[in-house]
Amino acid sequence: MGKTTTSAAFASGLALRGFKTAVIDFDVGLRNLDLIMGCERRVVYDFVNVINGEARLNQALIKDKHCENLFVLPASQTRDKEALTEEGVEAVIRELEHMGFDYVVCDSPAGIERGAIMALTFADEAIVTTNPEVSSVRDSDRILGILQSKSRRAAEGREPVKEHLLLTRYSPKRVDDGEMLSYKDVQELLRVPLIGVIPESESVLHASNQGTPAIHLKGTDVSEAYTDVVSRFLGEDRPLRFVNYDKPGLIKRLFGGK
Amino acid sequence: MSVAPAPATRPIEFRNATLDSTIAVLRVADAPALADALHKMLGGMPDFFNGEATVLDFAELADPPQRIDWPGLLSLLKRFRLQPIGVRNLTPPLAETARQAGLALLDAAELSEPPPESARPAPAVAEAEAPPTPAPAAARVEPAPAQVDTLFVDRPLRSGQQVYARGGDIVLLAGMSNGAEVIADGSIHCYGPLRGRAIAGAQGNASARIVTTNFGPEIVSIAGVYKTFEQGIAESLAGKAAHVRMVMNGTEQKLGIESLALD
Ligand SMILES: Nc1ncnc2c1ncn2[C@@H]1O[C@H](COP(=O)(O)OP(=O)(O)O)[C@@H](O)[C@H]1O
Ligand SMILES: [Mg+2]
User: How far apart are alpha carbons B209 and B184 in whole angstroms?
Assistant: First the structure.
């Protein structure tokens, strides 16, 4: 899928633009975000400890190694999912607000269980991450419905959560070969504004092995694509890139090369 | 001096509510047989339901059993993401065992007119055991035409969501997705893609229609007469403006689909 990869890159991108940002792992029991952020050895307290009052929020927040103004709130690997209470999550998000955070990025687990609901309950905006496959699009459709019925904004009858569609693991060649849905197909099915298309790339694997969010791998398509996403989120215009497949020309086919 | 607590500070308060619930008409009460039937019906959509409150109706029980395995039955329904809350139309001894299993005993009168089960493809259970009789739509008495507001849905209806326009029409202003379901006692008007299940005339009104600017449903139904699209939708209709209505084919009712010229 790519939700955690995206949360890490997006939160880092906001921090690189100067915003004080926190990224919270809601995947209790799995704990992935800290690996991708490369801070797994520095986890002492986690989100559930804070909710249970066993640690203070500023004891649990881990300062990112790349960005001065980015903090990670890791998930617990051992607790059960019921530990995320709505009051607890709300209290943590409110406290982050009081601490002067500009953005709080909530990395949702898969599915529609408690963790996912808690991750979207307090959202102002949602980046729905989808792969160009029918089943993934269906799941995203479902989560969009839940977003508009279970979020606080919906419950209180306020302005609805603002939706963005992010398509990731996109392979223009496979779209060209008819093996994947095109970004236009996905957008037609979901009818949510597209905030970006992230290409399928090995650099994501390298990034996660190094514990470095993919946006930091300068010069790669993935880093550029995530940088565009952050810019669009901040209201800037960026043309869509990495969506067209250029068939290799004759010379390339004759002499190989990549 | 002590002051009686203001009503707002009472730790518990009771209010009347009409409950929106799904009715499951069970024609067998045997959990394994139901499991088979549910699996067959919802095979493609194991999460068709979304924790809906469900009333179990035993009026059409083919062969009333001596006892019902409530724990088995309840856990089966919960596995399919239904939340049983009560029962109706059970014999008194069986009703008593239902009560002991924590279910409410409900009368038809306590439920405000739900769409008849014959008009609902999904909740009518136990197809494998006893094929449901065709919808007796023609025989149904038309409810007195009360003035009912049209129900407007401003946002896209998403997979897993369901709306029911009781007694009237529904207007979908942002289309609906595959895996969503819209039910109306009157007609369905859909601006944008109609992609899920569209059930019009749910109380038997055969003159209800389904109208859309972008035709692409999984299933359409009017007054209990269905049409599915397993072989896909004709190219002349797919994605186009179209409407569905009941037509007579000799003495047989069937659904006719025609494209609409929008301008
Ligand atoms: N753009 C991409 N290109 C290639 N692989 C990717 C890309 N994005 C994510 N992945 C891989 O997909 C897998 C799941 O990613 P992750 O971000 O953990 O997803 P989620 O949090 O949705 O489960 C990981 O192995 C990750 O390396
Ligand atoms: Mg994840």
Answer: 10
- With tokens 């290409």, the residue in question is A199
Closest atom of ligand 1 to A222 CA is 1
Question: Among A208-212, B96-100, B131-135, B146-150, where is mean pLDDT lowest?
Answer: B131-135
> How far is the alpha carbon of B94 from chain A, nearest alpha carbon, in Å?
35
Residues shown for chain A: 258
Top residue of B158, B191, B195 to mutate, by most chain A CBs within 10 Å, is B158
All domains of chain B in start order, with CATH: 7-105 (3.30.70.260), 151-259 (2.160.20.70)
- Tell me how close the Cα of B157 comes to any Cα of chain A, in angstroms: 7
Q: Which ligand has the shortest distance to the CA of A109?
A: 2
CA–CA distances in Å: residue A1 to residues A221, B132, B248: 18, 41, 49
Minimum Cα–Cα distance from A113: chain B residue: B50
The answer to whether residues A230 and A14 touch, using CB atoms and an 8 Å cutoff, is yes
Quick check: A148 contacting B, CB < 8 Å? yes
Whether pLDDT at B28 is above 50: yes
**Could you give the CA distance from residue B182 to residue B218 in angstroms, rounded to a whole number?**
12
